[in-house]
Amino acid sequence: MRKHVSFRFRVLALLLLFFAGSFALSASRSGSASLWLLTAAVPGVILFLLLLPSGLFPLDRPSLAAGLTLCGLSILAPVSFGPEEALSQALRCAAALFFLFAGAVLLRIYRPSLPGSVLLSALALGLLSLPLWLPGIPLSPGDGASAILLLGVVSFLSLRLRLPALLCALCGLFLFLLRSDPVSGGIWTLAFILLFWASSGSSLWTGISLCSAGGLFIFWILLTPLPDSAGASVFSRLSAMSVVLPESVPESILPEDSLFLLLGEQYGLLFLLSAVLLAVLLLIRGASLALQSRKQFYASAALGVLLLLGIRALAFLLNLADLLPLPAGSFPFLSLSPETLCTDMFFLGILSGISARNEADLSEDVRLSMLAR
Amino acid sequence: MKTMRYRIRVIALVLVIAILGVMLWCARALFFPDLAVFPLSPENSSVSPSVSPSLPASPDPWTTTPDPASLPQDPWAPLPQPDLSPSDSGVPAEITPVPSQAPLFDTFGL
Amino acid sequence: MPQASSQLWTILYSVARWILPALAALSVLFILFWLLSDSRSRHESLRSLPGSGTVGELVVLSGSRDLDPNTWFPVPREGILGSVRSCDLVIPCPGVQPKHLDFSWEDGVGLLIHPRSGCEALVNGIPLTCRTKAASAPLTHGSLLQVGSAVLRLHLFAALDNTAAPAPQSPPDFVPPVPLPDQEPFQPEQPPFSQAPFSFPAEQNPFPSDPPFPPEQIFAAQPEPVQPPDSAPLPETFPQPEPEPRPEAVPRPRRSDRWKEDLGE
Q1: Is the dihedral of CA C88, C89, C94, C97 positive or negative?
Q2: Does C210 sit within 8 Å of A4, measured CB to CB?
């Protein structure tokens, strides 16, 4: 336990040094008040969340460390473009923290039941179909709806209701395709098929889900052409990056660009490697939490989060390496979109809730064994 | 739950290996382009990585014109015909029989 | 706000070119060590709790050629019972399908049985199919489960015993179980320690209010009843049966070549 705690403090110290140093470097160059504020705020928030007592609010610290580091990198990336852009990104990340706590609370209080599953699935499908009813609406949650749909489908699967789970997943896929978002639809399809395979325990049902979801997806892309990945090859930009920070500070880059590429061009390939390895560690932690869970609902929820984040990261990297000729969205946590950031934080909250449930189960076992002594 | 745990391990392993594999592929393409297993696409092959002075970029063998002198000699290429015309010095040239295609065993001295 | 001179900033930048990536790499490395350390500490804590994650055990009263009587299985909180090796409870008996039923523990209710389609199970003589509501016949401490030709008895951990469930019934064609020596046929009053409450979630009842049990009674079906001091002696027409020695529970074999493989795995 002592070693365990010492690793936490070592990681915390390293993260504080890293972010304080990075922001202070840029702030000392420009003298911007916003950057000096970020120099204190970003490490401060990381310190606060990682030191938050478990008794007050249980959070999964290892996954939180990885997620918050990626968030911090997403704030660091646009610094060279302008301090105000970095401050806006910081405010988006701060607002997304609310969804971290919301996800953790939801997983602690929710118990799988038929009304709950129907409610979650209906809410998710309603959010997905919102742009179809109200075309002029500016809000069109896609990623957020997929997170809620994941909980609904997982809830159905834990109640052994495979047919409703399959129908909800197919409706979700259909709505993704109707919204002209085949990439999200493809990610959802793959995640759902693997989730169904892992949790249904039946080859027949897995085959049915594969044929129905895969068939619908293939049928759709045969009817409608897939969008090409916009712009020139991104791999050429990757090959122009330096390994460490470049010798001279590069010029400002447009903010519509990918934060992942911005990070690489400003801070080098080692930073990109660290970001990818942090995402891999987050996936490993998600798998570990899924394996420690004693109930199928929590194991399936952790697996679903792992799949949605992991397949998205893989699709992004394949697009980066010019192996996937499709626009693949953004890397997990490295996004300028508030909706994507909130969804990623919600996933982190789900993992924290599952970790808290696992700890509660273990403490219950300790209590039972003490009762027997 | 036993089967589910096994399948979770499989899925996580495949995902992690896939992501690390793509990273390795990118690293190979950036730092060791001459180790390409299959030809790179034209737009990638024309880009030279400018990573740092300590890592010089290797020339791409799929696009650069090879130096004829550096190419290995083809052992199966026909040998040049000897000049059978009489020389100016009056010394008759030795006529040595040169087959048009050297058999395998003669080529390797067997 | 403070701003460094260009010369100073150039020096800071040239130092930061190497230090910042090193810090980033070290952070990733230490987060990995943190994950490994967390996993190791969890394994150690689970090793000190051998019954962790289980609610009790299923003892085989009558099995088959591949399943000896008195074999016991630890029962997890959720799982699948079937005849293939990939199931959580492997019962290689005739009449048991490869994946026969799902089971799950519900606090305050008991072990719920959900037979799969085309499968049937008997809980204390009550037949259950995939259409029967599982909560109508939960398995509690001492209950009998019959799947195929196998008859199993559930022994819950003492702190998970649920006394709210009805007493087990015996239908006419039911195989009578082997009576345990500590189960008296006539019990004028319930012994005090059998009234152990079902488990509360840790956040609702963090402090156990029941007296601790001695360690040898963890797997006991029921503790020996306490004879009241002023109870009248039993009449001669109902002689007290001699308590039979409890047969030793044989741990289940680790792996059997006779068990069916699950090709889906």
Answers
A1: negative
A2: no
